[in-house]
Recover the amino acids of this structure.
């Protein structure tokens, strides 16, 4: 698995105005992880009950593996770049 | 760098051969290496693909309001991670997807995708190059780098 991205740059510029935002993911990310871990621990008993009920439908898997998969996608985002340039506006998103 | 290529470059540096000769020799060594390369090495080369690039460039007759220029670089690792998400699709939903695809004539089952298949698919991407030119002159270029 890749190391999580450190910075996300969002740049939107128009004719009259624009902004350039540098999101320090290395600061936001640990906070989000702590919140998700806390929620996971709080909801674990409910999730276990739900997993037992949904076992036959095969829905237990997304319950437990969704967040690790999302984390995997998040880590894999490093290097993503989207650059759209129109007549009067430009959007640039980069994950570093 | 392989020994042969080094030797050619050294000969060029010492002015023993001309640029054209060096170019010809280098292309010959590249062909020979391609023949000698074991299958595993080719696969490793294919795995070195890092990004999928989608570039849309406007044509001279493009309408106003349409995206003028699009340049997207998607890491292959993100595609790999996204494809692994299919493992989370509930069985009944995957069965419905399979049925819907089968109706359209595509016999493809999400549940049968394995890690090895994903790797094979990504390795095959190294040969991908799509070049489309629209009616208004706009160009779409999809390639890997």
């Amino acid at each position: 698995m890749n190391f999580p991205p450190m910075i996300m740059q969002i740049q939107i510029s128009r004719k009259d105005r624009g902004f350039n935002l540098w999101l320090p993911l290395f600061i936001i990310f640990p906070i989000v992880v702590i919140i998700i871990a806390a929620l996971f621990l709080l909801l674990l008993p409910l999730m276990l009950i739900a997993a037992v009920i949904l076992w036959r439908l095969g829905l237990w898997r997304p319950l437990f593996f969704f967040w690790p998969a999302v984390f995997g996608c998040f880590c894999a985002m490093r290097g993503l770049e989207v650059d759209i340039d129109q007549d009067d506006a430009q959007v640039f998103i980069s994950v570093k | 760098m392989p020994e042969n290529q080094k030797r050619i470059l050294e000969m060029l540096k010492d002015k023993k051969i001309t640029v054209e000769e060096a170019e010809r020799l280098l292309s010959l060594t590249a062909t020979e290496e391609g023949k000698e390369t074991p299958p595993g090495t080719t696969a490793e080369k294919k795995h070195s693909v890092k990004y999928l690039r989608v570039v849309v460039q406007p044509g001279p007759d493009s309408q106003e309001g349409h995206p003028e220029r699009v340049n997207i670089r998607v890491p292959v690792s993100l595609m790999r991670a996204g494809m692994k998400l299919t493992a989370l699709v509930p069985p009944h939903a995957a069965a419905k997807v399979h049925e819907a695809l089968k109706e359209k004539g595509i016999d493809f089952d999400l549940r049968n995708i394995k890690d090895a298949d994903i790797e094979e698919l990504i390795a095959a991407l190294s040969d991908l190059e799509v070049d489309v030119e629209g009616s208004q002159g706009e160009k779409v270029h999809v390639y890997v780098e």
About this structure: Confidence is low (pLDDT under 50) at residues 39-43 of chain B. The radius of gyration of chain B is 22 Å.
